[in-house]
């Protein structure tokens, strides 16, 4: 989860370097949000600000496990550098003047992913852990938290991605398999695919996706389906952008616009926008990794009018909030797989694939419908 862009932070730092008063720096931060993060020991804010205790002269990162001071004794700074300029010294417990533990762990997992991607043959967990400098059990746990996959599953997924890229430009499946790191073509047939390997090699000529577009309360909506069910519900403002998003996601398939064939599905989507408590019974063709589908199924269990935090879903699925956020961002079935019901650690509306304004509108409509239903129940 990202709370501020690097550009915003760089701009703020440049202003600070121009000798802005520390009180003005504090004013640039949302004090209530910062204090909430400190009280919750929210590690996702560690790289956004530090807090200093006026009575001790020490500054800490928001996730510091030390006892919390009174709010009136706390000052907030955008960086350790600013806190030290104001006369505070770094806490020896949380070490706020060093790279955060989350960042250090992210760097280690990124290095592990790079090693797995560059290896010609699958790396055993013990060998990978030794090269990273962690124990095998620690690496396996961190890797699963950050990516939602085990190192072995990650390596296999990447190998399959290479296979998909090599199939269209290879003369045979065997040639594509060898170029992707498989020892033979037999192994690639041991895994189920949305399309047959021969179809993928022919650029998905056998997969036919029909789609329809219509205006709705959120702008324009594109609904697409395969022979198995709906594979995409996309929102946008411009028709070309919607069609481009569809073709990028299903680049190997033949996509054909057919508004008449998708009329019933478009009616269902409009109905659910108006009455979000009436769940659609349309069949879905959710094309994603095993982990993504686990997350999407969990999203579909969130009742209309309610929200879940990324961290709550991470605990439920034994994963990491960032992995949950990535799975939500890759969801192609807007509204029907309600990723708009997932919010940040403080309850704030965070990133949404089709824009924060649409996310806010969907949640507001759901709240209105639920409240109306309650009022009717009370009046009976």
From TrEMBL:
Reactions catalysed, as given in the entry: a 4-O-methyl-thymidine in DNA + L-cysteinyl-[protein] = a thymidine in DNA + S-methyl-L-cysteinyl-[protein]; a 6-O-methyl-2'-deoxyguanosine in DNA + L-cysteinyl-[protein] = S-methyl-L-cysteinyl-[protein] + a 2'-deoxyguanosine in DNA
Pfam families for the chain: Ada_Zn_binding, DNA_binding_1, HTH_18, Methyltransf_1N
Entry annotated with the keyword Transcription: yes
GO molecular function, one term: methyltransferase activity
Gene3D superfamilies hit by this protein: DNA Methylphosphotriester Repair Domain, Homeodomain-like, Methylated DNA-protein cysteine methyltransferase domain, Winged helix-like DNA-binding domain superfamily/Winged helix DNA-binding domain
UniProt domain HTH araC/xylS-type: residue ranges: 109-185
Cofactor(s) this protein requires: Zn(2+)
Keywords assigned: Activator, DNA damage, DNA repair, Methyltransferase, Transcription, Transcription regulation, Transferase
An individual GO BP term: methylation
Entries under PANTHER family matching the protein: BIFUNCTIONAL TRANSCRIPTIONAL ACTIVATOR_DNA REPAIR ENZYME ADA (PTHR10815:SF14), METHYLATED-DNA--PROTEIN-CYSTEINE METHYLTRANSFERASE (PTHR10815)
Protein name: Bifunctional transcriptional regulator/O6-methylguanine-DNA methyltransferase
Annotated organism of origin: Pseudomonas asuensis
């Amino acid at each position: 989860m990202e709370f501020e862009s690097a550009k915003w932070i760089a701009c703020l730092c440049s202003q600070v370097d121009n000798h802005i008063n520390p009180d003005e720096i504090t004013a640039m931060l949302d004090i209530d949000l910062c204090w909430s993060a400190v009280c919750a020991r929210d590690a996702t804010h560690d790289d956004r600000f530090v807090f200093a205790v006026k009575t001790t002269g020490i500054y800490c990162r928001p996730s510091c496990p030390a006892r919390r001071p009174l709010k009136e004794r706390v000052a907030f700074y955008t960086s350790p550098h600013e806190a030290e300029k104001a006369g505070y010294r770094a806490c020896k417990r949380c070490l706020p003047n060093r790279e955060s533990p989350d960042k250090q762990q992210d760097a280690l997992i990124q290095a592990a992913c790079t090693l797995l991607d560059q290896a010609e043959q699958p790396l055993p967990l013990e060998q990978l852990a030794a090269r990273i400098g962690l124990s095998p059990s620690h690496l396996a746990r961190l890797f699963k938290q950050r990516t939602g996959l085990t190192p072995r599953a990650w390596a296999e997924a990447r190998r399959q991605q290479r296979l998909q890229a090599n199939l269209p430009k290879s003369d045979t499946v065997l040639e594509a398999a060898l170029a992707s790191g498989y020892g033979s073509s037999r192994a690639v047939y041991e895994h189920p695919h949305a399309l047959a390997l021969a179809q993928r090699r022919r650029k998905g000529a056998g997969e036919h996706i029909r789609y329809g577009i219509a205006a709705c309360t959120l702008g324009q909506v594109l609904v697409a389906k395969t022979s198995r069910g709906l594979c995409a519900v996309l929102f946008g403002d411009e028709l070309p952008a919607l069609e481009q998003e569809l073709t990028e996601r299903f680049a190997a398939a033949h996509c054909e616009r057919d508004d008449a064939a998708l009329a019933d599905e478009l009616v269902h989507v409009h109905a659910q926008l108006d009455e979000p408590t009436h769940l659609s019974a349309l069949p879905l063709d959710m094309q994603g990794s095993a982990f993504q589908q686990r997350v999407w199924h969990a999203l579909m269990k969130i009742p209309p009018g309610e929200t879940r935090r990324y961290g709550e879903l991470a605990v439920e699925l034994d994963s990491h909030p960032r992995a949950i956020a990535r799975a939500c961002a890759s969801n192609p079935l807007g509204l029907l797989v309600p990723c708009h019901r997932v919010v940040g650690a403080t309850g704030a509306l965070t990133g949404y694939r089709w824009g924060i304004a649409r996310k806010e509108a969907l949640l507001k409509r759901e709240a209105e419908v639920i409240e109306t239903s309650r009022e009717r129940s009370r009046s009976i």
